[in-house]
Design brief:
Blueprint lengths: L2 E10 L4 E8 L6 E8 H6 L5 E2 L2 H7 L20 E2 L1 H14 L8 E2 L1
């Protein structure tokens, strides 16, 4: 099992939960997996991929060029974003250690 694509992700700071939707190499384009992982698990695995990206977001917030692809991977909290490659590495490692925690496929 290997993560091939992060579809959506968000850190819920109220509950300290990472909410992530992804596909594995075994999933097709109509299937999706949704997971909620406590932030303490991320820290326990030695990852720290939440970083401040507010200056980058503010620089483009007034532009309306229709290029929403630039904002992919930036969470709805304007002050935080995640490094998607680190997130994929964490998820691959997490589900290698805890294969029983891998969410079931759902139709997209």
């Amino acid at each position: 099992m290997e993560i091939k694509e992060i579809v959506n992700h968000y850190v819920n700071f109220t509950n300290d939960i990472l909410e992530v939707s992804f596909r594995t190499i075994d999933d097709d384009d109509t299937e999706l997996r949704n997971a909620e992982i406590p932030v303490v698990e991320i820290i326990a695995f030695g990852y720290d991929f939440i970083k401040n990206d507010s200056s980058l977001l503010e620089m483009f917030e007034d532009e309306e060029d229709g290029d929403d692809e630039f904002f992919d991977g930036i969470s709805s909290n304007k002050n935080e974003s995640l490094d998607v490659y680190d997130l994929m590495s964490f998820l691959n490692e997490y589900y290698l250690v805890y294969p029983d925690q891998l969410p079931k496929k759902e139709l997209f």
